[in-house]
Design goal:
single chain; alpha+beta; four-stranded antiparallel sheet; two-stranded antiparallel ribbon; 11 helices; 6 strands; 68% helix; 9% strand
């Protein structure tokens, strides 16, 4: 309530009293607020304008390229054509925020010089990191996509940096996966080459036995016995002696032929399976599919995103008004208690 005592008003600053107080102090409040408005307008024109460009992307599902493309009955959880889930989005975020991408962007665009950081300053690297984080923001949206937002005084550079960051994700992902794929490929390649060598060696051994006259041990043995029986019945001694020579060769090399032939069938079956694994490992090593789906690429902005002069003026003026009002109230309260 407003009270009068010795000609000087007393306030308890209920809502009505506050309005009355503001009205009575309107002149200094208006002067201070107007000065703050003018000053904020001047300051807003000295702030370097920033332009914003944005890339929006979805992560791809983590799936085997070779199995998706080559396997007849692939029953994996993910397909290479699907959008990834929350786990893949987090992995994409980790890569986008990696030191590797940050360092490549800083080096390519010479951001230390672009941001005006002096090399001989006290903490140039800390300043650079803070400037990078303040200008480049990476976040996950409510739709499970990932957004790369870049603000810069150069609108074209803002768009280029945003697009380059999104492009570098594939490079970083591919480099990481290629290291593992290379080790796996070398293991499969060695096993495949060893089996291929064993197969070739067995085939060479069979080729040698064929030069000795053994082409099909079981079939030849049946035919020789049949022919030998007929020669005995006919008393054909010449045929009998010829067949005896054949039997000696069969006795000497027949067992080896049977062993080598069995081995060759086994090696051929194993080699067929290993060839598929070899091809799969080679595809995983050599083929690199994108690890993100680009929804919107960054484009050069034609309107600045910061500063918003109207917001600066309104906030500064309102802050100056409230602060001056508070100081006036404190000043009057102190005077009233001292008198």
């Amino acid at each position: 309530m407003l009270n009068e005592q010795k000609g000087s008003p007393k306030y308890d600053f209920a809502s009505t009293d506050l309005l009355i107080y503001i009205w009575r102090k309107r002149v200094p409040l208006m002067i201070i607020s107007a000065a703050a408005a003018v000053l904020s307008i001047i300051v807003s024109f000295t702030i370097t304008p920033l332009f914003k460009s944005t890339v929006i992307m979805f992560p791809t599902a983590s799936a085997s390229i070779s199995k998706n493309l080559l396997a007849d009955n692939y029953s994996g959880r993910y397909s290479i054509y699907e959008i990834g889930d929350e786990e893949q989005a987090e992995k994409l975020m980790q890569v986008l925020n990696s030191e590797e991408i940050k360092n490549r962007i800083i080096e390519k665009y010479n951001l230390k010089e672009h941001y005006g950081i002096e090399p001989d300053s006290k903490y140039p690297q800390t300043q650079l990191n803070e400037a990078y984080r303040s200008k480049i923001r990476i976040r996950r949206t409510e739709f499970m996509s990932v957004e790369v937002e870049v603000k810069d005084s150069d609108p074209q550079m803002a768009a280029d940096i945003a697009n380059d960051i999104s492009s570098l994700t594939d490079t970083i992902f591919s480099d990481m996966l290629r290291q593992r794929a290379l080790q796996a490929f070398r293991i499969v390649e060695k096993e495949y080459n060893d089996m291929l060598a064993s197969y070739q060696q067995t085939q060479d051994s069979l080729s040698f036995l064929r030069t000795q006259g053994i082409n099909n041990y079981l079939a030849q043995a049946d035919r020789y016995h049949e022919a030998y029986g007929k020669a005995l019945v006919l008393g054909n001694n010449q045929a009998i002696r010829a067949l005896d020579d054949k039997f000696e060769i069969m006795a000497e090399f027949g067992g080896d032929y049977d062993v080598y032939n069995t081995q060759l069938s086994y090696f051929a079956a194993v080699l067929s399976r290993m060839k598929l694994r070899y091809v799969e490992a080679k595809i995983e090593l050599e083929q690199a599919l994108p690890h993100k789906f680009i929804v919107d690429r960054a484009v050069k902005a034609d309107k600045k995103a910061y500063p918003k002069k109207s917001v600066i003026v309104i906030v500064s003026t309102l802050s100056a008004f409230l602060l001056s009002l508070l100081l006036l109230i404190l000043n009057d309260n102190l005077k009233s208690k001292l008198t």
